Amino acid sequence: LEQVRMTQAKHLLETTDIKIADLYVAVGYNNLTSFRRAFKKKYGVAPNALREELLILFRLISRAALLQTDR
Description:
By secondary structure, this protein is mainly alpha-helical. 79% of the residues lie in helices and 0% in strands.
């Protein structure tokens, strides 16, 4: 069950802008601290850090795409 919840949480972090305070409930956790601890144990990074990394990556890809279209 925890594997399913973590997979769903990661997917939601990657594909939506749902707040982490809402996400942990959406995937079936009752406690934010427990969710963050389990997520970090599974993925090696806190949920908010993963989202920040994804946003940075998205911005870099977007800039690279814009540079390609300017040529």
